[in-house]
Amino acid sequence: MSETKVPPFDVFEGGKTHDFKPRDPDEQFDDGQWAPDDEPASKHPPLWAEPFRLPDEASIPRREWLYPGFLLRKFLSVTVAPGGAGKSALALVEGVAMASGNDLLGRGYDGVQRRVGIFNGEDPQDELARRVFAIAKHNRMAGDAIGDRLFLESGRRVPLKFVVTEKAGPRLAVEAVDRFQEAIELGRLDVAIVDPLVTLTSAAETNEVMELLSAELARIADETGAAIHVVHHTRKPSPGSGGEITADDARGGSALANKARIVRVLNRMSKDEGERAGLDGHNHRRFFRLGSDKVNLTPPDADTSWHEIKSVRLANGPENDPTHGDSMGVVTPWKWPDAFSDMPADCLGRAMAVARRGQDDGSPWKEDSQALEWIGYALAKEFRLDAYREGRKVVGKDVARLKSMIRQWIGSGAFAIEKRKDVKGNERPVIVEGILNAGE
Questions:
Q1: Are 228 and 221 in contact (CB under 8 A)?
Q2: Rounded to 5 degrees, what are φ and ψ at 42?
Q3: Contact at 8 Å (CB) between 96 and 191?
Q4: What is the pLDDT of residues 393-414, one digit of tens each?
């Protein structure tokens, strides 16, 4: 891809503006010692041939973000996630969003229709087509929404190996690398997505191999002007990590993360998070959160975005029942539920009064949701929420919401935890009215 030529900067010198002009190689420095006449001219341009002058601020070219906060023209970006978490489905949705110009994930996409190439080294071509069609169907996109701007390629049809193994060790396969770069240039691609990175090598995923791969991909991004997005697997989480994925968990050490400008990580929703979000059973497995682990061009974004993988049924079933075809997973935006949405304005004061009054006999409510005297039951009655006891379990659609509210009221100081002895003499945590923290 040919680069867009940027007009010369206007620079300030002595209070006047003039066009920036590169130094003439034959020009001498003030002391006349630019280069001896008897030495041959170097085939490389001289280093530091021109002093920097502050340009007119408005003339400085802006960074070209192709996908908000993640894909930047001329740079390598990486998504790190464990297998089966949704990273491939996410990359496909983002690719379709850029090709169609639609903000499919609520990330503030600019609406520009871009040319996107996706190389999937694992899935066959027809599977990629099914997945893209499911994305279009779920988002009610017209048949011409992506035009001729999306290019899909399967590694099963066209294997690409940037690094191969030889007796002397891993070697860069220049022909494959050149073929990849040429495809970006001929296709005039704005974005090239590689999923997963491991399919570009037949060598073990050592730090040396990752260094070779990432260096070539970063170079290709710079020379073609495209943004390159690499999807990469993780190794098993380290002991004590709690299962939380970071960029350090990427296979092959830190080489890939070091070469990338932006690294983001994808973490599945945990069972505990699912309970706090009010999800039933194993439904939490359909959700993941996405966050930046390394952003060295912009300040870190503390906000993580949540996504849900929804099932989309294709109408490619048998003749007698065409509507029951393949079920495909499509990544969609999802917002963490707000426990206090639709609650009355005076809910805090009323909740504190519930804790102050206690039970009918004046004894305090229990903190434990398994207890018969759980404060959640009293709060459910006060605010007409759905939570009740069925056998030994607390059930109802608002149980997770009540638990979240109670945690937040404890954190704010509205509720206080005290230890009281039960009828058997055992100390149990109970909830009493607290004192609000400053600023609450």
A1: yes
A2: -75, 145
A3: no
A4: 888 888 888 998 998 899 999 9
- Residues 421 and 109: their CA atoms lie apart, in Å, by 57
Which residues lie across from 427 on neighbouring strands?
A: 421
3-class DSSP assignment, residue 249? helix
Beta bridge partners of 295: 262
DSSP 230: E
pLDDT digits (tens, 9 = 90+) for 286-313: 999 998 875 544 443 445 789 999 999 9
Cβ-proximal residues to 146 (8 Å cutoff; 6+ apart), any chain: 96, 99, 100, 136
* Three-class DSSP category at 69: coil
Q: How far is CA 127 from CA 289, 351, 398, in A?
A: 25, 53, 40
Q: What tokens appear for 254 in the block?
A: 């830190």
Whether the predicted model's global pTM rises above the 0.70 cut: yes
Amino acid identity, position 374? W
**359, 377 in Cβ contact below 8 A?**
no
Complete DSSP assignment for 31-68: TS-S--TTSPPPSSPPTT-S---PBPGGGSPPP-EEET
**Nearest-CA neighbor of 273 among 287, 262, 259?**
287
Tokens of 24: 């003439």
Helices (H), 384-435: 399-412
